[in-house]
Amino acid sequence: MALRPQEWSLARQLFALQIAVVTVVVAAGLGAAVVQAEHSTEENAATRALAIARGVAATPDVRAALSLPDPTSVLQADAEAVRRATGTDFVVVMNTDGIRYSHPDTTQIGGKFLGHIDAGLRGEDLTETYTGTLGPSVRAVVPIRADGRVLGLVSVGIKRSAIDRSLQGQLPLLALAGGLALLVAAGGTGLVTRRLRRQTHDLGPRELSRMYAYYDAVLHAVHEGLLLLDDKGRVQLVNDEARRLLGLPADVVGLPVADLPLGASLSKGEDQTDELHLTGDRVLVVNQRRAAGGSVVTLRDHTDLQALTGELDSVRGFAESLRSAAHEAANRLHTVVSLIGLGRVTDALEFATGELALSQQLADRVVEAVEEPVLVALLLGKVAQASERGVELVLDPEAAVPPGVADPRDLVTIVGNLIDNAVDAAVAAPPPRRVEVAAWVVGEELVLEVADSGTGLDAEQVEQAFARGWSTKTDERLIGRGLGLALVGQAVHRHGGTIDVTGDAGAVFTVRLPTRARVTTS
């Protein structure tokens, strides 16, 4: 494992890389510090030599000694005293021709000074590095002036070997500083790596790349919408299905969830389990769970399922109507049989024909007024259901619905839910309990009207009537009510229709839908 870095975890690879980078940086910094220290030491030596040379050149005894027949007798002792006192390597006093009057090596006295003196002869100070009789040195050359004339020159120098020794004395401190910097950097890198290992679960780059590929594939493949929200209610992730179900734009990430469809519900951050919600033309099942740093929302499309459920409810209603009709027919049959058994055949015949005529009259009225077969079946079933609950369901005598004017499934949704809510409202009100249904075509619009004898709706209830979850029922056993009217509003909206509600003496719901002929021509 140690010899195969490509198999290391991401944290371990980054740690090794960071250590290498830090080592290179510290080494480069240490080298730069050594070069800087060398340059600084050399500059300090030159500055020091220049200051000493100026001091010697300004000494009156030195100027006076240059006028003596034998300047060396005075200058050699003075120069050596200065050299020893200042710790320099040589103090040389010379004439304008560069002939030495003093030197640490007395054999060099009287010889020509090795170095540049032209600047000194012009009255200027000079510092340089030059190789003389004592080897390479950093030296300063200063003129000795009197009455505006240059009488001689003073050169003070420090050998390079002495400068190097001074620099070597600084190297342990520089090395210690570099080592401490490397240690601190390694410690900080170790802490960062430890945190990274926890966050990446000590996985390697290949594993992380493979996980991302799987994660991305799953997000695009699942048939459920997925939203990830942070703790401030902003969208952090959204998959393709969620974009489709909610009609979201491409740049939705980072937007507040309150700005999205269903945002009012999702922004609360509360847990939801299989909650039904409506958006423009869809019925969605929403689940929301709080998670670390935010919440996870899943969406399932139940639009088609809800339509099928509505049809199933209608079929179930038809079955209940048939059961009720069968039970009632059995009662009437028993009555007829009992009358015949009592020898009252005429009474039995009158009772039977009367009941038959009444049922046939109702069926004939519905069939004559409503030519859409699905709506006929729905109304006959609802009449039986309402009768069983003590509510009279009446079809307006002027009602007329030709076949094919609207989608039968949407007619079942709209009329069925409106009648169910009207019957519930009538049952909750004092007798007489009555529901009236009217339907007719005006121009290119189908008008559906359902009125009940309930207590009606106030202005606030009318405004809320088609919001998901609204209901006038308070029975705790009826949790989940309020979807029926929302489905009615959705179906009407989908077809570009309108719906009006009045609630003075009982509620009256009036729906206007464009007929199929109008939709086709437009």
Automatic annotation (TrEMBL):
Entries under SUPFAM superfamilies matching the protein: ATPase domain of HSP90 chaperone/DNA topoisomerase II/histidine kinase, PYP-like sensor domain (PAS domain), Sensory domain-like
Any GO CC annotation of this UniProt entry: plasma membrane
EC numbers for this chain: 2.7.13.3
Sorted UniProt keywords: ATP-binding, Cell membrane, Kinase, Membrane, Nucleotide-binding, Phosphoprotein, Transferase, Transmembrane, Transmembrane helix, Two-component regulatory system
GO biological process: regulation of DNA-templated transcription
Domain PAS: 211-251
Pfam families: HATPase_c, PAS, sCache_3_2
Family matches, as CDD domains: PAS
Superkingdom as given in the UniProt entry: Bacteria
Signal peptide: none
Subcellular location: Cell membrane
Membrane topology: Multi-pass membrane protein
The protein, known as: histidine kinase
